[in-house]
Amino acid sequence: MKLWRALVLAIAMLPLGALAQDAWPTKPIRLIVPFPPGAGTDTVARYVAQKLSEGLPQPIVIENRTGAGGAIGAADAAKADPDGYTLLFVASPFTTVAASSKNPGYDPLKFVSVAPIASGPLAFVVGVNVPVNSMREFIALARREPGRLNYGSAGSGSVNHLALELMNARAGIAVVHVPYRGIADATKDLLGGQIQAMTASIPATLPQLAEKKLKVLAVTGPRRVPQLPDVPSWQDEGVPDAEVINYWGIVAPAGTPRSVVLRLNTETQKVLARPEVRERLEREGAELIPGPPERLAAVIDADFARWKKLIVEANLSFE
Q: Does domain 27-119+245-313 have CATH number 2.30.110.10?
């Protein structure tokens, strides 16, 4: 009886927060996706959320909060209660938009990293009417006719924008930026001949390539990818120090309990270890990057610092 009373007293003295954390989750978890439904990142987020829900006693519910290149959703997540019931699915715009905006409404370095998921390069594509068949030929054409070639992006500060400003800086060329309200509109004008170049995700590129509606001149990663085995990297084609990698991961508001972060990370590692998940993400042109929360934090830190440096070096303006 004395032992029982001591145990009851010890439990009563525990902070309420500790008891709540042990019981987490007791209600559905909200995963904010700062991109439109059906977009590439959205489909990956929904797939990962579905698989994660299978290992938790509560479902993960997707909430699309779009606008400002992902900044609106990120800002909402930053202001959410750090109780483990709000998460944010991030991709490269999480850092490019923050790096290029004076007031994005959030600081990517103040979030708590939860789990890295995957990363992969973009494809550098040109219209079929552009008279080049390689990256080196494109660079030569841009040097011969500075300011004549245009490239499209998903908007100012997007990864498509900064990737090609990085290309301009490293190759010493001046391809002109044409911002759009989304990558779908930019793609439409590329296929119509209104612009000459852009970067795009590999899955979005493959069907257009198969129908010979565009040409893929390079991938922006450090090496070739299985989906495009005959396509060289920028590094191969004489564009040094210009690797651009899109990444996916999950972060949480600052102050989210460490116990919740570690539980989510453990469940994410289990998901990424499943063969069908690996196959699904590899079809997106991505390579799995499983690991602890600190691995995602390192990716975000390095990506943010690199884009901030480029913006200063290239004297880019985003007004």
A: no
